[in-house]
Amino acid sequence: xxxxxxxxxxxxxxxxxxxxxxxxxxxxxxxxxxxxxxxxxxxxxxxxxxxxxxxxxxxxxxxxxxxxxxxxxxxxxxxxxxxxxxxxxxxxxxxxxxxxxxxxxxxxxxxxxxxxxxxxxxxxxxxxxxxxx
Length: 133
Known about the structure:
By secondary structure, the chain is of the alpha/beta class. The chain is built from three helices and seven strands; from the N terminus they run αββββαβαββ. The N and C termini lie far apart (73 Å). One of its GO terms (molecular function) is transmembrane transporter activity.
């Protein structure tokens, strides 16, 4: 077998198009599958807990302030609309969990009401956020 010689002294070129296609497909894959950190939209002073663990799938974050305000997705929500908002967000992502981020001095009754509304909305994976000691 004889090796082919290139006429005119041209050097062979590498076609980068397939590699670029693969890179763009991988980029799209990582963007679609990435989980972004969602915040409730307000800063609260969370209590410390020794047994606090990191919640991997916390897609619905509900913040309860010291003054009794409820925030979901950077919007203040009326107490009567908590269930409807959680149902809507849960329909968008059925595997998501509800994390209640409550201020240390927040009303416990309001936190229980938010937990109850989340369970009535069909979300049974409800947690309360705390800082690790």
